[in-house]
Write a structure and sequence with these properties.
Elements (H helix, E strand, L loop, with lengths): L3 E2 L12 E4 L14 E4 L5 E5 L7 H9 L5 E4 L3 H10 L1 H6 L5 H26 L4 H18 L5 H7 L6 H18 L2 H6 L8 H17 L9 H4 L7 H7 L2 H9 L6 H9 L20 H15 L11 H8 L16 H4 L7 H11 L7
Antiparallel strand pairs: 1-2, 2-5, 3-4
Helix pairs in contact: 4-5, 4-7, 5-7, 5-9, 7-9, 7-14, 9-13, 12-13, 13-14
Length: 368
């Protein structure tokens, strides 16, 4: 999260707030028309660029040589800055001068913003509008640029264990899913049976649409009251029934769009269990779509390894042990599991897909 500074002192700009940004995300000649500041050793904000769009390559090189890691913009300009990030995400991710960690941070900010906008728009209209889908698909296409880098999985490993928030959760599920599918391309042939006969651009489109399913699988949660969604404790029977409606609401959001059928099925079925004990229809085995079975695994893993108001994050290794039905070890803090429900997860997942996912996780070098 960007640090916010409140200037004080005689030479400060009074009552102004600033947020830090990395010089790595500045594309020369592209930044919006707002001032950019440096934070001096004297505790003062010093004007560095009168207009961001006039920043040159030479200026950035000089800044880098001086060892400056952060510059600042007025917090009132935050919307313009976030709009700039989204509009130029592809160029930022392709910038060889930016670190993978910084690219991942920008991608996370943009994707969370896109998901938030999609959720809010859907809540107002009751459906996913073409603009929301276009923004989502564009963002995912840019994400694929990042995932082609050899070190792109390192930031993903660092994201595991963070707080569980709907928008951030959607971003992590997207990243996990796309990386997992790129690591197991044969699964795309099951998701889309015509995959082998498609052109390269059409194959890319299939992967992007899988990303749409990952990013917006929980969009139906916009209709769950916040006091239920953010409840700090167990849900009542009535509250649980309300929550269980969200896959149907997610499907309703996709109706009327030209999104492929496998995306709609994934949104509807991502809480179905392989043993038939899931919801909303209690589907069993291969009657659940391939993409939904994959999402069920990734969605669960991220939820378990994320902090929530009512529980700590489960360590990745323990989360996998629970998912495969391994017994609880005495040394593991009981607060790191969610109760009886976790102990009965063994048959919730497609065993072959779960094995593939565990192999994939082994490449991330996750912390215990």
């Amino acid at each position: 999260m960007s640090r916010i500074y409140i200037p004080s002192g005689e030479l400060m700009i009074k009552e102004r707030k600033y947020m830090s940004i990395s010089p790595e995300v500045i594309i020369p000649g592209v930044m919006p028309k707002f001032k950019i500041f440096l934070f001096s050793s004297k505790g003062e904000f010093v004007l560095w660029a009168l207009e961001g769009n006039r920043v040159t390559t030479q200026q950035l090189a000089k800044l880098s040589k001086s060892g400056v890691k952060e510059v600042y913009v007025d917090l009132d300009e935050r919307f313009k800055y976030e709009e700039y990030l989204e509009d130029n995400l592809g160029r930022i991710l392709e910038n060889p001068g930016a670190s993978v960690g910084q690219k991942a941070d920008v991608f996370s900010k943009v994707s969370a913003s896109v998901v938030k906008a999609a959720f809010e728009t859907s809540f107002g209209s009751g459906s996913l509008g073409p603009e929301s889908l276009e923004r989502t698909e564009k963002m995912i296409k840019n994400a694929l640029v990042l995932l082609t880098e050899t070190k792109a999985l390192e930031p993903l490993a660092q994201m595991v264990g963070h707080d569980y928030q709907t928008y951030e959760h959607a971003t992590k599920v997207l990243w996990f899913l796309v990386a997992f599918l790129k690591d197991n391309p044969e699964l795309l042939e099951v998701i889309e049976p015509k995959y082998k006969t498609l052109s390269e651009s059409q194959k890319m489109s299939v992967l992007i649409h899988c990303g749409v399913a990952a990013l917006l699988h929980d969009v139906g949660k916009v209709f769950i009251p916040l006091d239920i969604l953010n409840k700090n404790g167990p849900l009542t029977g009535v509250e649980w029934e309300v929550v269980k409606r969200h896959p149907l609401s997610s499907l309703a959001m996709f109706l009327g769009t030209d999104i492929p059928e496998f995306v709609k099925k994934a949104a509807l079925q991502h809480h179905e269990d392989f043993n038939g004990g899931g919801y909303p229809f209690g589907l069993r085995g291969l009657s659940i779509s391939e993409l939904a079975r994959i999402l069920r695994i990734i969605d669960t893993f991220d939820a378990m390894t994320s902090r929530r108001p009512y529980k700590e994050a489960v360590p990745p290794k323990r989360a996998i042990e629970i998912m495969i039905g391994a017994p609880l070890k005495k040394k593991v803090d009981s607060s790191l599991v969610s109760g009886d429900r976790d102990q009965g997860m063994k048959e919730c997942f497609d065993e072959d897909l779960l094995k593939n996912f565990i192999v994939f996780l082994g490449k991330l070098n996750l912390h215990e």
